[in-house]
Design a protein that fits this description.
This protein is mainly α. The protein is 69% helix and 0% strand. It has four helices and no strands. Helix 1 packs antiparallel against helix 4 and helix 2 packs parallel to helix 4.
Amino acid sequence: MTTLAPNQSTGFIARPGKLMRLIALAKAMLEEARTTPCDAAGCEQFKAIYERTIDELDGVISPELHEEITELAIRFDKAAPSPSALRIAQAELVGWLDGLMSGVVIAVQGQQIEAEAQVAAFQESAADDRVMPGQYL
C-alpha cells in the first residue's frame, strides 16, 4: 500500500489507485448524467452510485478529508432526485476530487523539489570534504 507523507494542505491518501478509479468513475457518471435522459429508475441508480462513491472514499483518504467531503456532499432524501439535482451533485463531487488530486500533485512536486535540494546539498558537502592531492590530513 502506497501512502503519501502527511502534508498540512493535502492530508493522507492511503490508496491512490483506488482514489484514481473513484475519480474516473465520478467523471464518467457526470458525463452520463449530462448526456443520458434520466427516468425515475435511472435517477435512483445514479443516486445510489453517487452515494456509494462518497462512502467508498472512506479508507482511501484521511478522516479529515472524508469529513470534508461528507459535509459538502449533497445527501438526497428517499425520493429519486431530479436529473438536474444529480448533475449538480455529481459536478460538485468531481470538482472536489479534481481539487484533491491537484493538491496531491502539488505536494508530490514539493517533496520531489525538497529531495532534490537535499541530494544537491549532500553532494556539495561531499565535494567539500574530499581530500585534494598534496593536502595533509
